[in-house]
Design a protein that fits this description.
heterodimer, A: about 130 residues, alpha/beta, globular, B: about 90 residues, alpha+beta, five-stranded mixed sheet, 2 helices
Chain lengths: ~130, ~90
């Protein structure tokens, strides 16, 4: 299960809408033991594409340092799918994912955003519930 | 003089669970060679067979991405911190 502080959830979804028509991405930080997202870090998409994303490396470093200064760890990544389901694409699975990370997909295809989270291990995709937790 | 090397979560299990390790070398490439000597499981995770930086990692000397410096030939000193972070991408 991936629990979000409501503010982090709001920052994540807002960043995805702000990125349109391109895919948007960012990182989520929290306590790896509890799997609770305390902070969402919007990052640039170095690909500037509507089909792929690459977390801007400088933003990644900045987020990692900020998380560490708060006693948190980067525990996952989010990105938007502008016209498809909130489900990992073959490209997502092929990018050597970290089995310890949460892969959050935000689909903007429908009227309301759809947020789902996955673990990816050895090419196997497992979904986990996403809940808000103040 | 050893430099501090910060490891991403995905590589920590291959380095005894440590988030930060010390390694010797005058360049990023030499530091990585020393790291692999200490932690052989890191061998194909940092540098490719043809001797380039692996595309799944980004390496920073302090605040700078070494791809924009001299890559593996980037010089390092005692006060420097080398940070390895995953290159995060998808579709």
């Amino acid at each position: 299960m991936l629990r979000f502080r409501p503010h982090a959830y709001k920052v994540m979804v807002a960043h995805c809408y702000e990125g349109l028509p391109l895919e948007a991405c960012g990182l989520v930080a929290g306590d790896p033991m509890t799997g609770k997202v305390e902070v969402a870090y919007p990052t640039g998409n170095a690909d500037a594409s509507s089909r792929t994303y690459t977390v801007e490396p400088k933003d990644m470093l900045r987020a990692d340092r900020d998380a560490e200064s708060r006693g948190l760890t980067i525990i996952g990544v989010f990105h938007s799918h502008t016209h498809t389901d909130a489900y990992p694409s073959p490209t997502d699975v092929a990018q050597a994912p970290d089995p310890a990370w949460h892969y959050v997909l935000v689909s903007l295809r429908d009227d309301a955003p759809v947020v789902r989270s996955f673990r990816i291990e050895n090419g196997n995709i497992g979904e986990e519930p996403v809940v808000l937790d103040g | 003089v050893p430099v501090d090397v910060r490891l991403p979560t995905i590589l920590r299990p291959l380095a005894g669970g440590q988030s930060s390790v010390k390694a010797n070398g005058a360049t990023i490439g030499e530091v990585f060679t020393d790291l692999v000597k200490q932690f052989p499981q890191l061998s194909d995770r940092l540098v490719t067979e043809d001797g380039n930086l692996h595309k799944f990692v980004n390496v920073y000397l302090n605040d700078d991405d070494v791809r924009y410096l001299d890559k593996l030939d980037t010089k390092v000193g005692a006060d420097d911190t080398v940070s390895i972070l995953p290159a995060v991408a998808g579709g």
